[in-house]
Design brief:
Order of helices and strands: EEEEEEEEEEEEEEEEHHHEHHHEHH
Number of strands: 18
Structural class: alpha+beta
Shape: globular
Radius of gyration: 22 Å
Largest sheet: 8 strands, antiparallel
Oligomer: single chain
CATH architecture of the largest domain: Distorted Sandwich
Number of helices: 8
Number of domains: 2
Strand content: 25-35%
Distance between the termini: 39 Å
Length: 397
């Protein structure tokens, strides 16, 4: 089902795997960058790659890198004109048909649990005058200061283009967190060039119709002890598996999640909203800790925040839709209770993906801060018991 609401204000789509989030706009990528200034701000959200683990007490999660494309004909870059975009929440695939000058392209965009953004380009038509497609990797930029998100000065990038390997790398250091992004394409022949705040790979001598895939891997110290090694391993798997098999694997994995329940409603829009909501819950549940954030980009409470009493709502949704494993993983939180010298469970008010308070380092600093949220935890545990009938749930928690 790919029903969509018509004529609504546009906002980029969020692809997520719990640890990472990527905002994708109407181009089917982070942007179709003609090189001209863009006025749309999407409510001050930058279409880029984000990591929930980057949220700390010092400020919001920040955009890490942007991976865009540029459509060129006759030496000039073109904007996306008309577009048609739809998302299938049962397979977690965003499909976008774009027109730009005489370019006609369909993109299938999805984010793997292995922390890889995949963009499959099906190029149906191209202009006659020297058509080119550039794949760009650069540091995040915005048209002007929008008063919501300030990009700090302590961000450092080093970009390298490797045309023989069809790749661009970006080593970054953001507020002391070091990592690497790698862009790779399976198109057989590319050349390298500079672009604003980064590098690009240029696909030339094009003959339509044709297809190619762009991959983006982003790993850093919050993900693994050796991000460079793990990026090499991931890239090797991408090359050996191939785009078609990765597409099938991704769809199969998400269909397995979707098939745990079924709901048919008279209104197809409500039925789509139900499936989309389950996708968004799964897309925001951290794979290691099980906590569900309220948005992994910097607009809502600066992003990457789990609110311990609001979590009761996705928990009820997971139980009612037979996602018991995901519901069980959400319940956690004994460390802060032990810091207070108390038995039982104590969740902080606002916390990061690890369950650490975003207000204090130790619960004893503010022993009287909001505690009514812990009633929500009790309700979550008892709801889990009612759904499973397992007395061990009450004993464990």
């Amino acid at each position: 089902m790919t029903a969509m609401l018509d004529r609504q204000p546009y906002f980029p789509f969020l692809l997520g795997n719990g640890a990472d989030a990527v905002l994708i706009d109407y181009s089917g990528s982070m942007h179709c960058d003609s090189g001209r200034i863009h006025l749309e701000q999407h409510e001050s959200a930058i279409c880029a790659w984000y990591k929930s683990a980057h949220r700390d007490r010092r400020g919001p999660i920040l955009p890490i890198v942007q991976s865009t494309y540029t459509l060129i004909a006759g030496g000039e870059g073109f904007e996306v004109g008309s577009f048609d975009q739809r998302f299938d929440p049962k397979t977690a695939v965003l499909t976008t048909d774009v027109e730009a000058a005489d370019f006609r392209i369909r993109l299938e965009t999805f984010l793997l649990d292995e922390q890889v953004l995949v963009e499959r380009y099906h190029v149906k038509r191209i202009p006659k005058d020297r058509p080119q497609i550039a794949l760009n990797l650069h540091s995040p930029t915005t048209a002007w200061s929008q008063g919501v998100l300030e990009l700090p000065a302590d961000r450092r990038y080093r970009f390298s283009a490797h045309a023989k390997n069809n790749a661009i790398t970006a080593d970054y250091d953001i507020k002391g967190v070091k990592g690497r992004a790698l862009l790779w394409t399976d198109h057989p022949a590319v050349s390298a060039a500079e672009t604003r705040d980064g590098k690009r790979l240029i696909l030339a001598d094009l003959q339509a119709p044709f297809a190619f895939t762009k991959y983006l891997i982003v790993l850093d110290q919050t993900d693994t002890a050796d991000h460079a090694r793990d990026i090499r391993k991931t890239l090797a798997r991408l090359k050996s598996t191939g785009a078609d098999a990765l597409f099938r694997e991704h769809r199969k994995r998400w269909r397995s999640f979707s098939s745990q329940s079924a709901l048919t409603l008279p209104d197809p829009r409500l039925e789509y909203l139900h499936e989309l909501s389950l996708y968004l819950i799964r897309a925001h549940q951290h794979p290691r800790t099980g906590l569900i954030s309220l948005g992994n980009y910097p607009l809502l409470w600066a992003g990457g925040v789990t609110n311990s009493w609001d979590a009761i709502f996705p928990h009820k949704a997971l139980l009612a839709s037979n996602r018991l494993a995901e519901a069980n993983r959400l319940i956690d939180g004994y460390e802060l209770a032990r810091q207070l010298g108390k038995t039982g469970a104590c969740f902080p008010w606002f916390m990061n993906h690890c369950g650490e308070s975003l207000y204090y380092y130790d619960a004893r600093e503010y022993p009287d801060i909001q505690k009514f949220n812990n009633g929500a935890i009790v309700m979550e545990v008892f709801d889990l018991y009612l759904h499973t009938g397992d007395p061990a749930v009450l004993e464990n928690y």
